[in-house]
Specification:
By secondary structure, the chain is mainly alpha-helical. It has one domain. It has 5 helices and 2 strands. α1 crosses α2. The longest helix has 16 residues. The two termini are about 35 Å apart. InterPro entries: HAD-like_sf (IPR036412), HAD_sf (IPR023214).
């Protein structure tokens, strides 16, 4: 018997234009770090490290490890310092991304019906690597 429904947050429960969201993400992160690196170089490095992370097939590596293994080779910057900048980004600027995404009323009604029927609902998404982007209260 089915008693739980699992939904993907981005694109299913929220109408997200993935390309636009990724552009906002990369531009915001690049802006955050642009005083440390050339913005064009940084954008390309973040993008390449993200692709390397996505394509990582080593089950012993976390997303964070795969990303920084690639990224640090390109930027030649102390890992501890750059990770602190990323964490600061996720605590601050990241929260502003997607603020213009409007809820989908049909999804809301569907979830209410499932809940009324006593079924459990779970929304899932994949965080790239920051603990802080998972702790949103909004």
């Amino acid at each position: 018997m089915v008693d739980t429904f699992l939904f993907d947050l981005d694109g299913t429960l929220l109408p997200v234009d993935t390309d636009k969201m990724l552009d906002e993400y990369f531009l915001s992160l690049t802006k955050k770090l642009s005083s440390y690196f050339d913005p064009h170089f940084l954008f390309k490095s973040i993008y390449q490290a993200s692709m390397d992370m996505i394509n990582n097939l080593d089950p012993s590596k976390t997303n964070k490890e795969a990303f920084f293994d690639s990224f640090l080779k390109m930027v030649n910057y102390p890992q501890e310092e750059i990770e602190a900048l990323f964490e600061e980004f996720y605590l601050n600027e990241y929260k502003e991304l997607g603020k213009n995404i409007m809820p989908n009323e049909y999804v809301k009604k569907s979830l209410e019906i499932l809940k009324k029927e006593g079924l459990q609902n779970c929304a899932g998404y994949q965080s790239s690597f920051s603990r802080n982007c998972n702790n949103r209260e909004d």
